[in-house]
Each structure stands twice: as structure tokens, then as C-alpha cells.
Amino acid sequence: MSSTEILFRPATLGKLELPNRIVMAPMTRSYSPGNVPSDLVVEYYRRRAAGGTGLIITEGTCINHPAANGYANVPYFYGDDALAGWQKVVDAVHAEGGKIVPQLWHVGGIRRPGTEPDKTVPGFSPSGMAVPGKVTGHAMSKDDIADVVAAFAQAAKDAQAIGMDGIEIHGAHGYLVDQFFWEGTNQRDDEYGGSMENRSRFAIEIIKACRAATSPDFPIIFRWSQWKQQDYPARLVTSPEQLEEFITPLSDAGVDIFHCSARRFWESEFEGSELNLAGWVKKITGKPTITVGSVGLNADFLPTDGTANFREAEPASLDKLIDRMQADEFDLVAVGRALIANPDWANRVRAGEVEQMAAYEKDMLLKLD
Ligand SMILES: Cc1cc2nc3c(=O)[nH]c(=O)nc-3n(C[C@H](O)[C@H](O)[C@H](O)COP(=O)(O)O)c2cc1C
């Protein structure tokens, strides 16, 4: 097997049959006026499928809760128009032989009043905080929690109904589910706060409700991260033992694939082992995992210049990735910015053109193509 060929082995992960190991990472693009995926969005995803991407995870798409959204022009995953828009995306991706799942999203306390759909609705979060110690929004009641769990389940059901190949639950990056996980923003004194078991209860209820709302083999991917947009060095777990305590109940609740979001895939997660985050989760749960973070690029994506711009980066060798894949550390590899810059990234890797690909430049976000 030539070295990059390892990325092009088909994968059968439960019901999900993928032509190769390359996944498009979820990336918010804000080209859905009226919160409906436009024809531009259909074409954008179609091109990535035609370019050889095995599995597309859509940009975050909001579940049906008044406080789920935090940004203008992002797509919703409810309402006839938005679901019809997604249906077109699904059909276009399938026509190219690709697979696609929506990333189901609730931003939690990141939402500010003034945001669509109802500008008077504040951010909802476990303790009214998006940032530790600063109460800026509404602390969720148990009824609110039940509403959000039900909205995730409905979205999962709708995803299956329009032919999506599974779902991804967004449990990462300091948004709502992660605000429950993180002690910094979860200061509740009921059964949803305190111990790790309690802080995971909300996520577990969402996973179980999504499982119950879909057929037993409908793939559920769960994305989580140590880092938070509010605090890049934050960590939910600092040892393999803590990771086991955290991840096993999520796995038992019905997750099929864990998407372990890190900024640099080559970094070892805990001292004394080379394994990265996805490697540890695979080792502990025995479930398939997706790695991510600067694949094919020479710099990680988080802004360092005080702006909201994701960092620019040049193409870089895949050798370290291939070494880890050969060691069976993870199953799938998600690619973010490099797939914005190169819709045919997968096909070009296969053609041996890694070094010739386009660099990622921040102006690429100014149009959708
Ligand atoms: C423009 C942009 C938008 C993003 N939006 C999301 C999102 O909606 N949901 C999510 O989980 N991650 C989001 N991310 C993070 C990516 O999924 C990915 O983890 C990150 O870009 C690292 O991969 P990369 O180094 O290959 O770009 C976004 C990243 C970028 C660059």
C-alpha cells in the first residue's frame, strides 16, 4: 500500500459504509439567508462529495429551540423550508456517491439578545454563564432542559426522514452541551451539576433521546473537545482514568462514533503515551473515532491576532497522519480549512498532489464556492 492509500480504504462503521477515511469537518459558513440552506450551499457540499470526501459533516445547524442560534445566516434544522433545503443537499451529495450527516447545534450561553429568530430571547445555559463567573443569560430550568433534549431528538428524527446518513451532536467548543460538561460554566446544584456524572447527564439524555427517535442502527456521532472557545487551554479531563470516567457513560448511552476535536492531531493527550485524543477514546471505548486538527496544514486554526479570523496556513505533509493511521490509532480523519481551500482535497491527495494544493486564506470565507 503506497503511503496515502491507507486513507482510501473503505470503512464499514456499523450501518455507515464509507468509501474512504476522509471526513469534511463541520464548518459554519453563514450563507443561509432566512436560515434556509441556499442553492449555493447545495453546490458547496456537492463539490466536496464530488472531490472524493468520504463523509461530510455539515456546518452547525440549529435545533428547534428559541435560544439555539447565536449567529446571522446560519442554517436551521427545522421548519419546512430549511428541511427542504437540506433535502436538496442530501440528494446532491448522494448523487456524487458521498455520505452526509448534519451537525446538530445549540449555542447555549454564547447567544446574545438581538439574535434571530426572536431578538428578545437571551442565551440559555446551565448557570446563565457562557464564561466562568459572568452571568449574562438565563439559567436553564429542568423544563428548559427537557425542551432542548426533545428538540435534539426531533432533529435526529427529521435527519433520518430526509435521508441523512446519521447525525453529529455538537458537544464541543464551549457551546451548550459543553457548557454542561465544563465546571467553569456549570455551577448547578441539582442532578445536572457537580460531579462529572451529573455534568454529563444532559448529554446522555440527548444521546438516548436521539437514539430512541431513530432506528437502532442510525449512526450517532458525538463531537467533543477539551478546548473551549472561551478558554483554549481548558481541559475536561487530565488523565486516562478521568477520560474513562467521562467517556464510558457517553459510549454506553448509544454513541457510535466519537469525533475528538483537537487543534493539532499530532499532539499526545496525556504524558507517557504518544496517543492523541482520538487514540485514547478509541482505546478506552473500542468505538471508532475521528481525529481532526491541522490535517494537511502547517498551522492550527484558532485566531491569534485578536480578530475572529481563523488562522491562515500553507499545505503540509501528511506523513505524521499516515504513521498514526498505520498504527490504527483512529478510524477517520476530518479536514477543515484545507477542504475550504481545495474542494477536491481527497482526490488530489490520492493523485499525490499534497504539496501543490492551495493554502488556506481567510478571504476564502468571503464567498462560498
Ligand atoms: C470557518 C470555520 C467554521 C467552523 N465552524 C464549526 C462548526 O460549526 N462546528 C464545529 O464543531 N467546528 C467548527 N469549526 C472547527 C472545525 O470543524 C475544525 O475542528 C477546525 O477547523 C480544525 O480543523 P482544520 O485545522 O483542519 O481547519 C470551524 C472551523 C472553521 C475554520
Structure explained in plain terms:
The protein is of the alpha/beta class. It is 31% helix and 15% strand. It has 11 helices and 14 strands. Strands 3-4-5-10-11-12-13-14 form an 8-stranded parallel β-barrel, surrounded by 5 helices. β12, α8 and β13 form a beta-alpha-beta unit. α1 packs parallel to α2 and α3 runs parallel beside α6. The longest helix is centred in the middle third of the chain and has 20 residues, at 142-161. The relative contact order is 0.14. The model has no long low-confidence stretch (mean pLDDT 96).
Keywords:
about 375 residues, alpha/beta, eight-stranded parallel beta barrel, 11 helices, 14 strands, binds flavin mononucleotide
Mean pLDDT: 96
Helix percent reads 25-40%
Secondary-structure element pattern, one letter each: EEEHEHEEEEEHEHHHEHEHEHEHH
Total beta strand runs: 14
Strand order of the largest sheet: 3-4-5-10-11-12-13-14
Which percent range describes the beta-strand content?
15-25%
Largest sheet data: 8 strands, parallel, barrel
SS element count, helices = 11
Instruction: Write down the overall geometry.
Output: globular
Low-confidence stretches: none
Distinct small-molecule ligands in the complex: flavin mononucleotide
Distance separating the two termini? 33 Å
Task: Calculate Rg over CA atoms.
Answer: 19 Å
- Summing up helix and strand content along with how strands pair, one would put the structural category as alpha/beta
